[in-house]
């Protein structure tokens, strides 16, 4: 099973992907083909080929900079409190974060929704999430790449380059397996 797809398409455009998605969705109603469509969009959509810079203020009022984590893998997870698949994924991301935070990888959660910070803080506390969370209004284009749905995870390598994107739920094992695959190339 393919979990993350390495993103290498440099010349395709988001518009052609969205047109393709609209045409296929009108014809297709099954999960299998929609899963294939998601995979196709991952392969065709452009990705950052150079180191990404991203800075934001987390829920604790601390500045979070991607560049502060050079030399480590960074999993950037775009999610929302109303997204059921996102909520299913939170414990997996927390487990991954706790296992790797002092070694080779960190997690950054980007809550993309209009929500009061106090409400988001309560939600994160109730769900026992300890990795950094920032809140942003929804945007389909992020510094890490396109967001076609939630949850969307971007994997940034130790050089600061986005090497993969996955729309849908990921597990700690899936992330670790993909990191190992890239390191063994």
UniProtKB/TrEMBL annotation:
GO molecular-function terms, A-Z: antioxidant activity; oxidoreductase activity
SUPFAM superfamilies with a match to the protein in the record: Thioredoxin-like
Start and end residues of each Thioredoxin domain: 45-184
Signal peptide (UniProt feature, chain positions): none
Coiled-coil annotated spans: none
Annotated protein name in UniProt: Thioredoxin domain-containing protein
């Amino acid at each position: 099973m393919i979990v993350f797809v390495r993103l290498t398409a440099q010349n395709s455009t988001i518009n052609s992907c969205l047109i393709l998605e609209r045409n296929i969705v009108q014809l297709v109603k099954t999960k299998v083909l929609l899963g294939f469509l998601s995979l196709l969009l991952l392969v065709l959509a452009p990705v950052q080929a150079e180191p990404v810079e991203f800075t934001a203020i987390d829920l604790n009022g601390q500045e979070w900079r991607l560049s502060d984590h050079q030399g480590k893998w960074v999993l950037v997870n775009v999610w929302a409190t109303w997204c059921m698949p996102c909520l299913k994924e939170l414990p997996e991301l927390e487990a991954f974060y706790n296992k790797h935070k002092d070694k080779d990888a960190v997690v950054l959660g980007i809550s993309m929704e209009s929500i009061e910070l106090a409400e988001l803080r309560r939600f994160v506390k109730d769900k026992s999430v300890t990795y950094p969370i920032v809140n942003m209004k929804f945007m389909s284009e992020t510094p890490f790449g396109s967001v076609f749905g939630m949850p969307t995870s971007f994997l940034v390598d130790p050089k600061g380059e986005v090497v993969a994107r996955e729309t849908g739920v990921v597990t700690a094992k899936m992330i670790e397996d993909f990191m190992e695959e890239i390191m063994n190339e």
